[in-house]
Inverse folding.
């Protein structure tokens, strides 16, 4: 027990988490305090809220998004199942990727031709892919949440001083109270990223699975660190900046699945412009510039602040990778005349060893030999 207490005291060392001359008692919520301080125990609330969001998503997808998708012609057809073959199934479970040497070895083991093994492998991989309707419902859910969260964020922050003057994020810190509307904004946003982290393991599998996993964990850590350190003001600005472009991304993908190609192209164009403006303009040159340059001028630095700023920079690094891929997709889309797929989706080609990942952008260009449809 003493060892645990020592570890906790070491971890929550005030010299690490708080500015100089500030103690946990100073920031402890209570009726005698002038402002309402953040309560670190509230970081547990997003976990049950995440389960609520997962249930809500299931209900909306089943009773709203799926019927709507069917009404506009999206089919819930599943690919043909591969014939039962225990040896091939065991090999597939070991690794879904197959090289030519493995094809030759498996063909001898199961007494089939190499062509038959390849055909079985394609069927088996297609079998794991969700239907177009399932992917349409997933995009509708995310689009709905991002639209709600961005709208709510704009509504509550419109009259907040730090939205218009970012220096207000640091002036008076750390004695900045949290209001009820900001509390809900933080809790629901954290719950959503927790739900994405959990559901990612059964959602549509993308090639950037681990990039997105790191993104979700970094976002959760960023929200948690900023909450504990009372840096919620800058945290709300980061949330608002991130939700904006994602609305149009998910909408573009949903319209692609619904075969509204012109609307998809239009929405993707808006998404690309918003992404570049918010993720590569406002975020680095306004928010990170403020946290890196202005903040040290206005308040004394402390170790946890550098952790917080490092997480912001980690998100920026992910943005830069995805921006390069999005620009590539946009260029290919213009060359091809339309968007043909999703470069985050898994290729069904056994010999495909390239892994072009993206935050999620609906496109893959037609080649002379074959067409990669959206998956």
């Amino acid at each position: 027990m003493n060892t645990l207490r020592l570890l906790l005291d070491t971890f929550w060392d005030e010299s690490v988490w708080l500015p100089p001359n500030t103690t946990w008692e100073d920031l402890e919520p209570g009726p005698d305090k002038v402002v309402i301080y953040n309560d670190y125990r509230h970081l547990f609330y997003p976990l049950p809220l995440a389960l609520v969001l997962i249930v809500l998503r299931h209900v909306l997808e089943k009773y709203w998004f799926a019927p709507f998708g069917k009404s506009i012609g999206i089919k819930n057809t599943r690919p043909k199942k591969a014939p039962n073959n225990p040896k091939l199934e065991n090999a597939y479970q070991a690794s879904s990727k197959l090289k030519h040497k493995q094809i030759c070895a498996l063909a001898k083991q199961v007494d089939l031709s190499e062509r038959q093994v390849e055909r079985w492998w394609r069927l088996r991989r297609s079998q794991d892919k969700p239907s177009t309707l399932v992917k349409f419902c997933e995009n509708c859910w995310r689009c709905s949440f991002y639209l709600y969260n961005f709208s709510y964020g704009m509504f509550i922050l419109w009259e907040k001083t730090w939205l218009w003057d970012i220096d207000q994020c640091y002036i008076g810190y750390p004695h900045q109270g949290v209001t009820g509307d900001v509390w809900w904004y933080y809790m629901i946003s954290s719950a959503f990223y927790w739900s994405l982290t959990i559901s990612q393991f059964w959602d549509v599998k993308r090639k950037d699975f681990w990039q997105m996993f790191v993104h979700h964990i970094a976002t959760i850590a960023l929200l948690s660190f900023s909450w504990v350190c009372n840096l919620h003001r800058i945290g709300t600005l980061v949330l608002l900046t991130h939700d904006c472009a994602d609305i149009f991304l998910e909408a573009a993908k949903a319209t692609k699945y619904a075969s509204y190609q012109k609307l998809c192209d239009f929405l993707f164009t808006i998404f690309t412009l918003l992404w570049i403006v918010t993720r590569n303009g406002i975020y680095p040159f306004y928010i990170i510039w403020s946290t890196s340059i202005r903040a040290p001028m206005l308040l004394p630095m402390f170790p946890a602040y550098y952790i917080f700023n490092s997480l912001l920079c980690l998100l920026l690094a992910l943005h830069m990778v995805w921006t390069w891929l999005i620009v590539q997709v946009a260029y290919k889309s213009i060359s091809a005349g339309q968007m043909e797929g999703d470069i985050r989706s898994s290729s069904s080609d056994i010999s495909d060893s390239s892994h072009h990942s993206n935050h999620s952008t609906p496109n893959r260009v037609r080649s002379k030999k074959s067409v990669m449809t959206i998956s």
User: Anything to note?
Assistant: The mean pLDDT is 82.
